[in-house]
Design brief:
single chain, flat, about 50 residues, little secondary structure
């Protein structure tokens, strides 16, 4: 549910709890960097062609 408070500095903030379960052999935690008007995350070359 989106916040509809006009004074909220981050109007895209969602309320409530979210649970993520991740299964796999490798996991990375990275910071998304700016790339033009979008974001970018660099991953190992071995991951080329994989679904991430």
């Amino acid at each position: 549910m989106k916040s509809t408070n006009k004074e909220d500095p981050n109007p895209l903030r969602y309320w409530g709890n979210v649970k993520f379960e991740v299964y796999g052999e490798e996991m990375f935690e990275k910071i998304v960097t700016q790339s033009g008007k979008s974001g970018r995350v660099y991953l190992p070359p071995a991951w080329i062609g994989c679904r991430v």
